[in-house]
């Protein structure tokens, strides 16, 4: 680990709006904020919105700037990346932005039933080899149900055709209500002030001529969620820090 990362982690440890609970400490350190985010941290009753896999936190910070009547929490395990958004939020005095450094597999440990109103998934790794690692899989959807309000909104913004297609099949298999869907966001007429917040890597993909895809859907609490049983063509390009890593052309 380089000195730059060490300095960033030292900063994060001192930030009042950053909470760090990776696997290595989560069982030993109590997390008293669960069910009390509004009362104990945000000091208001505004809706809570999560950005899962927030990276540098561009969406968390961008949304917090635009919507003072909502509270935003960026979640990721990569602290050195998260430092960028956390530092911006601190320097700008954004009282409605916080960051949680943890593994998303245990996200339901940090929020009580009905405590979260919306989830943003911005350019998540499509995890083409294993369905249970995809952030729109039924594995994760069941966890979201544990803290998302009934019928809460999930936003998926992605460069990955695999992730987009898989999520469409998952939504169709479970008859989840879709509010908006497009495979070319910036030519859909829907690139409004929220959706046009662009992450660092998104701009790189746009510069490479890749279409940005977007789905907005709701997650009811009723019913048993089913995984789609379909073969999906793998992405045929290398996205940031991703590759097929095999000779396969499709995956379930």
**Largest sheet report:** 8 strands, mixed
> DSSP helix count?
8
Shape: globular
Rounded average pLDDT: 90
What portion of residues belong to β-strands?
A: 15-25%
- Radius of gyration, in Å, reads 18 Å
Low-pLDDT parts are none
The assigned structural class equals alpha/beta
String of helices and strands: HEHHEHEHEEHEHEHEEE
Strand order of the largest sheet: 1-4-3-2-5-6-8-7
Helix coverage percent: 25-40%
Can you describe what's shown?
With 252 residues, the chain is an alpha/beta fold. It has eight helices and ten strands. α1 packs across α5 (79-92). The strands form two sheets. An eight-stranded mixed β-sheet has the order 1-4-3-2-5-6-8-7, sandwiched between helices. Strands 9-10 form a two-stranded antiparallel sheet. β5 (116-122), α6 (138-145) and β6 form a beta-alpha-beta unit.
Short description:
This protein is of the alpha/beta class and 252 residues long. 30% of the residues lie in helices and 21% in strands.
Give structural attributes.
about 30% helix; methyltransferase; about 250 residues; tRNA (guanine-N(7)-)-methyltransferase; S-adenosyl-L-methionine; 10 strands; two-stranded antiparallel sheet; tRNA (guanine(46)-N7)-methyltransferase activity
Note the topology:
Elements (H helix, E strand, L loop, with lengths): L2 H12 L3 E3 L2 H4 L10 H6 L5 E5 L5 H9 L4 E6 L2 H14 L4 E5 L14 E7 L15 H8 L2 E11 L2 H14 L3 E5 L17 H8 L5 E7 L12 E2 L16 E2 L1
Parallel strand pairs: 1-4, 2-3, 2-5, 3-4, 5-6
Antiparallel strand pairs: 6-8, 7-8, 9-10
Helix pairs in contact: 1-5
